[in-house]
Amino acid sequence: MSVIPTLPGVHSTFVDTPRLRQHVLTSGPENGVPVLFIHGNASSAAFWEEVMTKLPAGYRAIAPDLRGYGETEDKLIDATRGFGDWIDDLLALKAALKINRYHIAGHSLGGAIAMWLIAADANHIRSATLVAPGSPYGFGGTKGLDGKPCNPDFAGSGGGIVNAAFTQRMAKGDRSLDDPQSAPRVVMNSFYFKPPFKAWREEDLLSSMLSEKIGPDKYPGDLTPSPNWPHVAPGGKGPANALSPKYLGESVQRFITCAPKPPILWVRGSHDQIVADMSLFCLGTLGKLGVVPGWPGDDAYPPQPMVGQTRAVLEQYASHGGAFNEVIMTDTGHSPFIEQPDAFMKHFLARLA
Questions:
Q1: How far from 347 is each of 51, 199, 318, 337, 352, CA to CA, in Å?
Q2: What's the rounded Cα separation, in Å, for the pair 296 and 150?
Q3: How far is residue 21's CA from residue 18's CA, in Å, rounded to a whole number?
């Protein structure tokens, strides 16, 4: 039984693999076509439940809590492997559940992980749906559509750029409305969604958000002092460091050239402030806006063009024989599948079909 109450038709279970014990939400018939759902950062599988319950008969939804999140066994993430620990965990889960061919859907961090999973397991993936995916080059510290690092040590990415007050509140399980910049509830309602939207499962989604494992070796992870603005470079532990372009760059080419190439649906919100070309979570943006002092200027450290980088990589994927379709859902933020579930399902089901 999950700590977070599940929706009717969604079942909570634990699956033991050689790597770790994973908490998994499932729905639909056991012999249905598998659909693997991958959640984002500061969330858990619970974010996908409403979509899971809307799948037609004949599909089997499988949504694990990733390593470092939710109720999955608390094991550390080796960030120097990029997304490697998560990919190996998902492949181990797939083997334990005896899954052969399957669809995947990933949100935010989960969307970026989905691209790595395509590179690792393309032969078995029927289709992929990327919802507000992080840039294939990682989060922070890059410029240009080709993901060139702003600094050789990738300063401006990794655990050191995470708001310390936010992680402290996460660790305490803070459910207050005390601070607009660090209270998890306020962050969720201001940035996961386009205000004034509030999810009808707000309390459950907040619990999901607070389920992330917090600590210097967990989230946000460690950091390395840097002589380059903003004077922090990535460490080697935890999910925020695993998102650093320092550890992700080589994976982009593997994704572009993988074979075969499952068709991709890319869905993003028109008002996303987290994954955007002027993301309010990017230090390049915050420096340009004068929020973070000492910004060295657009030539040295511009806002990361996250959406542009994703589009450029998907266009290369298409030029190598793949196919993708970009859908921009209006009046939504970072989580269009929660903000407008019925509209999202029309696009999603068309892709599955």
A1: 12, 21, 19, 10, 9
A2: 11
A3: 8
- Helices 306-319 & 249-257, crossing angle to 10 degrees? 30
Give me the pLDDT at residue 300, please: 97
Q: What is the pLDDT of residues 89-104, one digit of tens each?
A: 999 999 999 999 999 9
Q: How far is CA 260 from the centre of its chain?
A: 24
Q: What is the pTM of this model?
A: 0.98
How far is Cα 308 from Cα 282, in angstroms, rounded to an integer? 14
CA angle, 269 then 275 then 280, to 5° = 110
Q: List alpha helices for 61-161, DSSP H.
A: 84-96, 109-121
Amino acid present at 310: T
Give me the count of residues in the chain.
Answer: 353
Domains in the chain and their CATH numbers? 11-352 (3.40.50.1820)
- What are the structure tokens assigned to 57, written together? 């008969």
Closest CA to 169 of 203, 212, 199: 212
Tokens encoding 267: 């869905």
Q: How far apart are CA 64 and CA 86, in angstroms?
A: 11
